[in-house]
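Q: Could you predict the 3D structure of Initiation-specific alpha-1,6-mannosyltransferase?
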Amino acid sequence: MLAALFHSTFYYHIGRLTEPTIHEQTNQQIATQDWRSLFPRKIWQVYLTPPKANKNSFEVDSKQLSDSASWLAHNRDYGYTLVGDDGAETLVHQHFAKNATLLRIFKELKNTGMKADLLRYMILSVKGGVYSDIDTINLKPIDSWVPEIYQKDARVVLGVEFDRLNGSNWGEVHPDMQFCQWTIAATPGHPLFSYMVDWVVTALEMFTAERETTFSELHVSSAEVMKLTGPSAWTDGVFAQLQQYEPDLRSLSDLSGLTEPRLVGDILILPIDGFGMGQAHSNSTNDGSIPNDAFVQHNFRGSWRHDKRSN
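A: Sure. Here are the predicted structure tokens for Initiation-specific alpha-1,6-mannosyltransferase:
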């Protein structure tokens, strides 16, 4: 029942937020500009205080930010921001103050993984630039991510995390294919991210209501985090937007097996190695080498799984 409600509610939001007059007006305004002129030279990462820690005395272990140096080294002249609790609160109140449920989520929710998921969508919605998890390594400069042929039309760059191909599915991933959200690049104001903010708020509100609990008392499994706020939810949101651009797309399997970047509307999808090299599935390069089309490597050290409100 919950899944059906998520589905119908999410697509209601998609329809409501993509009125043709708004979308056409936006396209007209940016039609003569390209990725380089619209894309903010900003890098965003998030580190929220763990639930058991005292926010007044907590300090980040610098070792946990060792991978962040790669982003600075490859992208000189880019601004870098590590968003913490105060920065998250400021963003919410400055740009989303009219959304009472969202304000309650950030005030009450204990699960830092879910809050970090929501934050990346919010940041990219209003600020643009590149969001990437702190356990990612930047392999090549951001300026090289969008091929020349797509510079005029690309507004979002994303990668594949899982591609079932002819193999079996994995337990917690989206059937057939999953887009990663450990790294995302976008120009500000893209409707995909307002969809995702709406999606997460609605999903969490419905989930807590069905469980007869509150945001502050919410207990979730890692699989539920994936479906409510994480890459599975992200994949649903992305695919719904892709279908707005190409109605002939019937399932995620229609995008399976990419070996070159594919532009759908204004969303550029990178093949598996773009952001997902080094994995033992999906035809990801996993022989110790770094392929030419690899831009990011994920080290899968997510600490959110150990939050006390995660299980």
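Q: Anything worth pointing out?
A: The beta strands are 42-46, 79-83, 129-132, 136-138, 156-163, 177-179, 183-186, 262-264, 267-270, 296-298.
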